[in-house]
Amino acid sequence: MGDAARLRDDSGYPERTYAIGELADEFGLTLRSIRHYEDEGLLSPGREGTVRVYDRRDRARLALICRGKRLGFSLTEIKEFLSLYDTDGAQVGQMRYLRRMARERIAALRRQLADVQQTLTELTDIDDQITRHLRRQGADDATNEEGSRS
């Protein structure tokens, strides 16, 4: 589809378009990040001369990219998800893929959470032991140290 046709909505009227700077501001990204997503095949803006012109589809894809990154998915995983959207109008394959990836991410985060909880328990125990030791030595000035508990 040519850029002129691509930039029209279903009624034939010109579609709302976005400059790269507008999208960068809206999503809190750098221009370089958006260009990188384009280089990776995640976005495919139209052109008006040498200027990139993003349409509502690009904006929606960018929102999904940002959400996917925020949720910890790789660009490869996001690209696969987006490609399934393009080939499956009913979105069954896309939803199955996303569910599988979400479940894997949930399992990984649960493992990380357990590791963090164990580390916090161990560090709290160490802090308690040191505090007791310092009190026995008459040197309990831990409440004045940076990073100590309130």
From TrEMBL:
PROSITE patterns: HTH_MERR_2. The keyword Coiled coil applies. SMART domains: HTH_MERR (SM00422). Pfam families: MerR, MerR-DNA-bind. Residues 99-126 form a coiled coil. Residues 17-84 form the HTH merR-type domain. Keywords: Coiled coil, DNA-binding, Transcription, Transcription regulation. The keyword Transcription regulation applies. One of its GO terms (molecular function) is DNA binding. InterPro entries: DNA-bd_dom_put_sf, MerR-type_HTH_dom, MerR_fam, Tscrpt_reg_MerR_DNA-bd. PANTHER family: HTH-TYPE TRANSCRIPTIONAL REGULATOR YFMP (PTHR30204:SF58), REDOX-CYCLING DRUG-SENSING TRANSCRIPTIONAL ACTIVATOR SOXR (PTHR30204). This is MerR family DNA-binding transcriptional regulator.
